[in-house]
Amino acid sequence: MQSSRRRFIKWSALASLTPLAPLLGKPAGSKPLVVSTWNFGVPSNAEAWKVLSGGGRALDAVERGVWVPEGDAKETSVGLGGLPDRDGRVTLDACIMDEFANCGAVACLEHIVHPVSVARKVMEKTPHVMLVGEGALQFALTQGFKKEKLLTPESEKAWKEWLKKAEYKPVANIENHDTIGMIALDMKQNLSGACTTSGMAYKMKGRVGDSPIIGAGLYVDNEVGAATSTGVGEEVIRICGSHLVVELMRQGNTPQEACEKAVQRIVKNQPQKSKEIQVGFLAIDKSGNYGAYALQKGFTYAVYSPEIPNQLFEAKSHY
Ligand code: ASP
User: Per the residue annotation, which of 37, 76, 91, 179 is the catalytic one?
Assistant: First the structure.
């Protein structure tokens, strides 16, 4: 397992960027635009850009973008190779939302490498928004998805090591969690987003975080903007985080201000706990401005626009 720091350096080098460039607050103000969470946002944005730069739809861009960490066995917080729950099961959560407020989600889905695409099928082929567990798997199989083993030898080893103490304590910015949330604005000025994760490592069986919950881990309003989140999902759910960020933008806040206000809401609700956990928000508006903010230092995100050719930044933080 690579450390976050090492991977940050690796992707920084790949994207030939100035690490942690202080561009925060300065709006990109352009389209197309794609932003996504954490270091794996860089290779993921590069995939999404192939769709956006060709005039494609933001929805297709975000789906294709998040396939990158979902399919990467070395990423231990998303899709294949994700760290399991405390019973050793890899259970995945994902959602997707388009410019018409169509949305689909899956939670606690096992054995499928690309849960985001199952979420898209839920959106497009069913009258529902969310399918969970066995029902989600059954549906995926009817849609032609292949049943696969997602627990890699490395993740199994990490889980067995964890079992020795079996202590459950999320640690800010380390890879026993992390989600890819990706939001994009296409050339037609339409917004879409996707969010996908294996959730908190060693979680209780059946635990679902913010990531597949529309309004918590992801929200898109084509009139206003889009937002996504990462970190301890329970705290994001409590404030309907991504929906809150979008509503704050509707009230006239910039994406940066909206992310800051949402994080401050968590601090107000949980003054003590908020010092120990990580939560980060990432947002874009309809004009192609972006912003990000987190509780703790270390929340990285990637931006790709005509002016910013795929760079990784570190968000400002409350602490
Ligand atoms: N938000 C995810 C969850 O709670 C985990 C993460 O982003 O770190 O499942």
Answer: 179
Q: To which H or E segment does residue 33 belong?
A: strand 33-37
Nearest CA to 244 out of 267, 225, 268, 271 is that of 225
- Please, are residues 292 and 268 in contact by the beta-carbon 8 Å criterion? no
Q: What is the pLDDT of residue 178?
A: 86
**179 classed as catalytic:** yes
Strands 103-109 and 92-97: antiparallel
CA of 66 to the centre of ligand 1 (A): 15
Residue type at position 182: M
Q: Which fold has domain 17-317?
A: Glutamine Phosphoribosylpyrophosphate, subunit 1, domain 1 (3.60.20)
What are the extents of the domains in the chain?
A: 17-317
- The rounded Å distance from CA 15 to ligand 1 centre is 25
For the chain, 319 residues long, the average pLDDT of each consecutive 10-residue run is 39 40 48 96 98 97 98 94 95 98 98 98 98 98 97 95 83 69 97 97 96 98 98 97 98 98 97 95 97 97 96 97
pLDDT of residue 3: 39
Mutate to test the pocket of ligand 1, among 93, 210, 238 (most ligand atoms within 8 A of CB): 210
At residue 29, the pLDDT reads: 65
**Taking the CB of residue 59, how many other CB atoms lie within 10 A of it?**
25
pLDDT of residue 1: 35
Q: ω before 32 within 30° of 0 (cis)?
A: yes
List residues near ligand 1 (CB under 6 A).
Answer: 177-179, 197, 199-200, 209-211, 230-233
> Residue 184: what pLDDT?
98
Q: What is the pLDDT of residue 30?
A: 74
Q: How many CA atoms lie within 13 A of 210 on its CB side?
A: 30
